[in-house]
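In the laboratory, one determines a bound structure by crystallizing the protein with its ligand and collecting diffraction data. In a computational setting the workflow is compressed into a single prediction: the sequence and the ligand go in, and a structural description comes out. We illustrate the idea with zinc ion.
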Amino acid sequence: MTAGTQLLFRDDAYLCRTQATVIAVEGNKIQLDRTPFYPTGGGQPGDRGTLTAEDGRVFTVIDTRKGEAPDSVLHLLAEDAAVPAVGTPVTAAIDWDYRHRLMRLHTCLHLLCAIVPGSVTGGQISDGKARLDFDVPGESLDKDDIAARLNALIAAGHAVETRWITDAELAAKPELVRTMSVKPPTGAGRIRLLDIVGVDLQPCGGTHIRNTAEIGPILVTKIENKGRQNRRINISFAG
Ligand SMILES: [Zn+2]
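The predicted complex, in structure-token form:
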């Protein structure tokens, strides 16, 4: 399972489906030559969806994970599911409604980074809600204030863009890295930056919406103390 895959979600997060070919099968894990499926990473869950063969057989993808080789993506079928043979052409289609909700929340977490001082120590996105942990010593964070500022940034309709910089450029700007626990992968020569223009700029390999207005109204549901210097901010969709 060493084959690499063309990661279509990296350049187009709005790509819902594509034609692809099965290049490797190991147990219930399927690799394609190209894929719109995002594999679990950076706190964002892997995509779900379907691989449909030309003869009409539908293989349901229940999760997507990174393989061991760089740029390899494993499309997971159910344990006992039939699998397509290597060489099978398929239409690979993600569950777009699910992915879009994840993209909205993921982008919203970037806005949260811009509002809350302190390094990010962890985070998780799930369907409909998300959380980020911040290293904020002894400071009490105001839930209503954070919610008001977050919704103002959302409503302002800031453009969301990606661009690439080199490892050396990132090394020269360590302030771009907000996460203490997870450093962006270096060594590939280039790093992708997510730029919410005028609001937040940091390395990120996840999927995002194009404009903050697309997130929609958000609730800050609770702020928890998780250790002396750790505050967990939980958000969810308001509607
Ligand atoms: Zn991101």
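The longest strand covers residues 17-26. Keep in mind that any predicted model is a hypothesis to be tested, not a measurement.
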